[in-house]
Write a structure and sequence with these properties.
single chain; 580 residues; alpha+beta; 15 helices
Length: 580
């Protein structure tokens, strides 16, 4: 399904043309029908001779309803540009064309309407005028189809227009499924018996019934209860379709035109972005930060603050860079388009392409472009998940979970290697590294990590088969003094669990296990508890060693102290079972 927007000056026959093509009058409000003037967006659909489906968004032509027009053209594939032969090119024709051009629309057809009300010479003059105005734009080579949509007594050109639309659909690229759905809401209402319904053009990915989605600037988490497209219920819908979503868990008053429906994991909502701006050449003044600006993004209108990047102002007819600050965070991507108007003067200023949705450099330093490697360079480290949310692109990690600027990666690698090398034979405690440094460490083939310590692979572990560990094992409940052991090595032995330290006395781990077995036997004989003296006698130890030993057993929960005796603790094991 392709989504086509009508465009053109007021009263040039856009709605009548849609009615003739689809059998549906797009004007939804009684006031519109009474006045013969489209005020808000209208919608209709049809099947072309080839069998291809086509959706129309009929946009208002009157200057006073430009806001609604801008809301309607945000997600279209192509346009049906309407010019009445009776009046020719008008100011609103020019503004609509410039807006479509700024939005990046690249495909369209021109319908020269009301040709039944003029003679052939006048029609030819009107056609030449149209060709003159669209020269140099995306409509320069577009077919011009003459139509008399309301005529019923002879050929009216509608069949020829439908054939031209078929060709247009065939030439217009299909919407791409990037697995990141987004629907800019253009209507929200309460349907009787169904609850909240929102409509819009789905882009970027598919939605399914029961999907969890996030809605609007308050990021409300809701469920898709049901889906319709052109009145037909479906369980899943792909991008490039007009869609009505019935949402569970939200009131229709909590959703406004301009809100977006997205899947939260794929988007990074932001209140500021950097972008190009092409300033229209018909302006009679430069564009600077001074002014009351409104940006049109998706289906919404947003009051924004503007900062020109790299210069003080941008001249008419030229392209520059700007940073826009939004009142609410929006889900955007580089490549999205926007339109900028100056509300004080009531004029369209220009528009352009979003380049960076969450700039990290200050406005005085930022020089955004389309190169996503610039984003990595500015952020130094960025996870692949965040990179996808910031750019819409998927890349394999440089290291670990990150994409890393090459210069920063080289400096980090050098720092990691230097700290490991300077740590000596005892090695470097990797707990002192952050997550990024540990990821770098894992890529160094000549550095080994053992029990949380990193050292060059050629350096022998001085703690392996350490003599003090062997002496503790031999000493059992009467361990030797540690005064002769290197302090650094002793700390490492304790940290690795090769040596147990309690109150300045050191034990072999097996000694603690043996003590636990002895305690179990003592408590089997004396369930009401045993004294330190009894433990001393049972282990053949001394008071100097048995007090720290008892404290260690208390600390592990093997025993509990009650007055002058020890009783069973919560972790007491059966006699002879190791306590770890």
């Amino acid at each position: 399904m392709r989504v086509i927007a009508t465009a053109g000056h007021v009263d040039h026959g856009k709605s009548s043309l849609v009615l003739a093509l689809t059998g549906t009058h797009p004007d939804r409000f009684e006031e519109e029908k009474r006045r013969g003037l489209t005020i808000d967006l209208g919608f209709a659909h049809s099947v072309l001779p080839s069998g291809s489906g086509i959706s129309f968004i009929d946009v208002p032509g009157h200057v006073r309803f430009l806001r609604n027009m801008l809301s309607g053209v945000g997600g279209i594939d192509a346009c049906l540009f309407v010019v009445a032969a009776t009046e020719g090119w008008k100011p609103q024709s020019e503004e609509h064309l410039r807006i479509l051009q700024l939005l990046g629309v690249r495909h369209g057809i021109i319908a020269l309407t009301k040709v039944d009300l003029v003679d052939d010479e006048w029609r030819d003059i009107a056609e030449l005028e149209v060709l003159d105005h669209v020269a140099g734009t995306f409509l320069a080579d577009a077919p011009i189809v003459s139509v008399a949509a309301t005529r019923t007594d002879g050929p009216n050109g509608v069949a020829e227009l439908r054939a031209a639309l078929d060709t247009l659909v065939a030439q217009t690229p299909q919407a791409v499924d990037r697995q990141r759905p987004r629907l800019w809401v253009d209507r929200s209402f309460a349907a009787k018996g169904s609850g909240t319904v929102v409509t819009g053009t789905l882009t970027g990915g598919a939605l399914r019934v029961d999907d969890r989605v996030v809605v609007g600037s308050r990021h409300l988490d809701v469920r898709v209860r049901s889906i319709q497209s052109h009145g037909r219920a479906v369980t899943t819908i792909g991008p490039g379709n007009r869609v009505a979503l019935n949402l569970a868990g939200i009131d229709h008053t909590d959703v406004d035109r301009g809100d977006a429906v997205v899947t939260s994991a794929n988007w990074w909502p932001t209140k500021r972005f950097d972008a190009t701006i092409h300033v229209l050449d018909r302006l009679d003044h430069d564009v600077s930060r001074r002014g009351a600006y409104v940006a049109y993004i998706g289906s919404g209108e947003f009051v924004v603050k503007l900062r020109v990047l790299g210069t003080e102002s941008i001249q008419p007819g030229t392209t520059g860079l700007v940073r826009l600050h939004l009142p609410n965070a929006l889900p955007m991507l580089p490549g999205d388009r926007y339109i900028l108007r100056e509300s004080g003067r009531g004029e369209t200023v220009g528009g352009g392409e979003i380049l960076d949705i969450h700039p990290v450099l200050s406005a005085s330093k930022a020089r955004p472009d389309r190169d996503v490697d610039r984003l990595i360079g500015e952020r130094k480290w960025v996870t692949t998940t965040d990179f996808a949310r910031l750019t819409g692109e998927v890349r394999s990690a440089t290291i670990g979970q990150w994409l890393v600027d090459p210069t920063v990666l080289a400096a980090t690698t050098a720092s990691v290697r230097e700290r490991v090398a300077s740590a000596g034979a005892l090695g470097f405690d990797i707990a002192a590294f952050d997550d990024r440094e540990r990821a770098v460490l894992a890529t160094q083939p000549d550095i080994a990590v053992d029990q949380g310590v990193a050292r060059p692979v050629e350096v022998r572990d001085p703690l392996a088969d350490h003599p003090f560990v062997a002496a503790l094992l031999a000493g059992s409940f009467s361990p030797p003094d540690a005064s002769a052991v290197d302090r650094g090595e002793l700390r490492q032995l304790v940290r690795r669990g090769l040596v147990i330290e309690r109150d300045g006395v050191h034990f072999h781990p097996s000694t603690i296990d043996a003590a636990a077995a002895i305690v179990s036997a003592l408590l089997a004989q004396s369930p009401d508890g045993f004294t330190v003296a009894q433990l001393r006698d049972a282990t053949g130890s001394t008071r100097k060693h048995v007090l720290p030993l008892a404290a260690e057993l208390d600390g592990r929960g093997v025993t509990r102290r009650r007055d002058d005796v020890r009783i069973a603790g919560p972790r007491l094991a059966a006699s002879g079972q190791e306590i770890r």
